[in-house]
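Quick bug: Delta-aminolevulinic acid dehydratase output formatted oddly.
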Amino acid sequence: MHLSSPTPFPSQRPRRLRRDAFTRNLVREHRLSPHDFIYPVFVHEGEGRRTPVPSMPGVERLSLDLLLPVAEECVQLGIPCLALFPSIDGALKTPDGKESLNPEGLIPRTIRALKAAFPELGVMTDVALDPYTSHGQDGLVDESGYILNDETVEILVGQALAHAEAGVDMVAPSDMMDGRIGAIRDALEAHGHIHTRIMAYSAKYASAFYGPFRDAVGSAANLGASNKDVYQMDPANTDEALREVALDLAEGADMVMVKPGMPYLDVLRRVKDEFRVPTFAYQVSGEYAMLKAASSNGWLDHDKVMMEALLAFKRAGADGVLTYFALEAARLLQRPRA
Ligand code: PBG
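Here's what came back:
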């Protein structure tokens, strides 16, 4: 017992506010809503075609006809936006990824169909070459194996324009080439697409947590033992993330993103504090796979860890989260509380 203590009682009892649900509800600092989510989906050709992604339990690649009801549920649940990722036929993959420029390609057709059916639902597309290249890299490769920057940016500009012509609401360059945000912004302006929003994958790390995604778009086998270390960021760095965000904002990004999510919450917080701009987190495929695997083994409570992980992004400063849990989490949020 401390003799200098003025009373034998604690002078503050923070537990008072935790005692009942009503006070916990009153003082809660952050809340999740379906409006916080962007739902990434994988599309492929065909009709009535769905193929599961084994490393992402519950995630399937869908043909357009099967995607439409999913989009409808997003509208009903209040999920503002879908993010489209293509799993294209292996025969269309080339070293230069030129199928990414095809105005009649899978993604432009999907954009048009979604915008026609659900004009109020936001549609976002990835701008990057990896689903389209025979080597699985996000850019053109020279003889030495180096990923060329400026030549790649030229193709990315064409890809972004093809998506804009098809009516996409937001493009999200995920390639990490230098100068691509400025080049895409200039091209969008020059072609009259002044409303097309750019969400820049600004602080995108060279992460092993993307493994299941690469299975989903079929780039994993093509990539083989090579990596993306010469363009994606070193997981050891955070000052560099601020520099990347500053560049993307100066070049015309409307929103920025930190990716992966949970292992990089410190980066998210620094970016939000420094720039105070709309900032998003991507809870990536590997994070999803971990939570699914542990909960399907009964080691974690699925719904509780899902909501806790998503809430953590808001607490760390995210305005929204790209998450494969979007539908499940939004359904849970919509359910009337007991
Ligand atoms: C493509 C891209 C990747 C992801 C989003 N866009 C993979 C990569 O960079 O290798 C990863 C998403 C995820 O893991 O969920 N450039």
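Actually, after a second look the formatting is fine. The chain has one domain: 32-334. Closing.
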